[in-house]
Automatic annotation (TrEMBL):
<keyword id="KW-1003">Cell membrane</keyword>
<dbReference type="InterPro" id="IPR003439">
    <property type="entry name" value="ABC_transporter-like_ATP-bd"/>
</dbReference>
<protein>
    <submittedName>
        <fullName>Fe(3+)-transporting ATPase</fullName>
        <ecNumber>3.6.3.25</ecNumber>
        <ecNumber>3.6.3.30</ecNumber>
    </submittedName>
</protein>
<dbReference type="InterPro" id="IPR027417">
    <property type="entry name" value="P-loop_NTPase"/>
</dbReference>
<feature type="domain" description="ABC transporter">
    <location>
        <begin position="6"/>
        <end position="236"/>
    </location>
</feature>
<keyword id="KW-0067">ATP-binding</keyword>
<dbReference type="GO" id="GO:0005524">
    <property type="term" value="F:ATP binding"/>
</dbReference>
<dbReference type="GO" id="GO:0015697">
    <property type="term" value="P:quaternary ammonium group transport"/>
</dbReference>
<keyword id="KW-0547">Nucleotide-binding</keyword>
<dbReference type="GO" id="GO:0016887">
    <property type="term" value="F:ATP hydrolysis activity"/>
</dbReference>
<keyword id="KW-0406">Ion transport</keyword>
<keyword id="KW-0378">Hydrolase</keyword>
<dbReference type="InterPro" id="IPR003593">
    <property type="entry name" value="AAA+_ATPase"/>
</dbReference>
<keyword id="KW-0472">Membrane</keyword>
<dbReference type="InterPro" id="IPR017871">
    <property type="entry name" value="ABC_transporter-like_CS"/>
</dbReference>
<dbReference type="InterPro" id="IPR015853">
    <property type="entry name" value="ABC_transpr_FbpC"/>
</dbReference>
<keyword id="KW-0408">Iron</keyword>
Length: 320
């Protein structure tokens, strides 16, 4: 598949007094996956709709490869779209659903079906081509929706919370599948999600949005390891943000903590989780929350030996 870069420059969209997209600039290099991540209402879907051409921006540009597509209608942009409600055609077979896109773009039936079979093979559903979509599980339907978006060989794939209608276990499995699918297909993909674990599991890069703005972006693992502010750290799931003076907090990341070493810190609270226990301990730097595996937790009494590596902690501005 020929993939192309996706770029937006200063995209702006207001709904009345709400600035849903406030100078949103994104770059997804060819063949990479970017997760647009942020809490509910921060403007992720608005940004995606502006890129798809489902909404017109008040200002800013959208580029796909060499083309400026800002004023083009959605069908002229040649994008693949996957939404949370997959909206498959219930009266068509799996093959019919997936061949629909290539057919709509003018491919002859045989060619459309060949492209559809290729796309079904990519998502691991080659064997179910003849089934009715009403006879599929939720996860299989979501794969059909993916195949349908991939079949016309779009330069860029846009996905809006594609896994959010699935149960936790299936979501977990499909995350892995999505990642390897994007790699295999070599497609440029923009994934909208509010789930930081999903972003980290699926995407190469992350752009973090808050109240219409992109507040931090970069390689996914770097953004997670080095949040720029207290708000970003908290949203990304860091538990240990200790108040400091001067409008700052000290982030104590996981890799700053060494267990079984250092001073004995009193254990103040412990709560059982699905994988072990969450402990709150009174360390000299402040109260810390730790997730322990069942095995680690089994050896813990009233105190826990714990060393905090000061050079791995980070001072961040508190913008919450
Ligand atoms: N058509 C619309 N008319 C008026 N306001 C809108 C419209 N669409 C979105 N908004 C507002 O714009 C802001 C951004 O909405 P958007 O749907 O882009 O957020 P989101 O990050 O995708 O949220 P979610 O994760 O809940 O879907 C919100 O305050 C929302 O209420």
């Amino acid at each position: 598949m020929t993939s192309i870069p996706l770029q937006t420059n200063d995209l702006r969209k207001a709904y009345g007094a709400t600035l849903a997209a406030n100078d949103v600039s994104l770059l997804v290099p060819a063949g990479r996956t970017l997760a647009l991540l942020g809490p509910s209402g921060c403007g992720k879907s608005t940004a995606l709709r502006l890129i798809a051409g489902l909404e017109r921006p008040d200002a800013g540009r959208v580029r796909l490869g060499e083309r400026d597509v800002t004023t083009l209608p959605p069908e002229a942009r040649h994008l693949g779209l996957v939404f949370q409600d997959y909206a498959l055609f219930p009266h068509l077979s799996v093959l019919g659903n997936v061949a629909y896109g290539p057919r709509a773009r003018g491919a002859r039936r045989a060619e459309a079906e060949r492209q559809a079979r290729d796309a079904l093979a990519l998502v691991g559903l080659a064997d179910l081509a003849g089934r009715r979509v009403t006879e599929l599980s939720g996860g299989q339907q979501q794969r059909v929706a993916l195949a349908r978006a991939l079949a016309p060989r779009p330069g860029v794939l846009l996905l809006d919370e594609p896994l959010s209608n699935l149960d936790e276990q299936l979501r977990h499995r499909l995350r892995e599948d999505l990642r390897s699918l994007f790699r295999t297909a070599g497609v440029t993909a923009l994934l909208v999600t509010h789930d930081q674990r999903e972003a980290l599991a699926v995407a190469d890069d992350v752009a973090l949005m808050r109240a219409g703005r992109v507040v931090q972006s970069g390689v996914a693992a770097d953004v997670f390891a080095r949040p720029a502010t207290a708000w970003a750290a908290a949203f990304l799931g860091h538990r240990n943000l200790l108040p400091e003076t001067g409008g700052q907090v000290r982030l104590v990341p996981e890799d700053a903590l060494q267990l079984g070493d250092g001073d004995a810190a009193p254990v103040r609270a412990r709560v059982r989780t699905d994988t072990g226990e969450t402990l709150t301990v009174d360390a000299p730097v402040g109260a810390l929350t730790l997730d322990l595996s069942a095995r680690e937790a089994a050896g813990v009494g009233n105190t826990l030996r714990l060393r905090v590596l000061p050079e791995r902690t980070v001072l961040l501005p508190d913008d919450r």
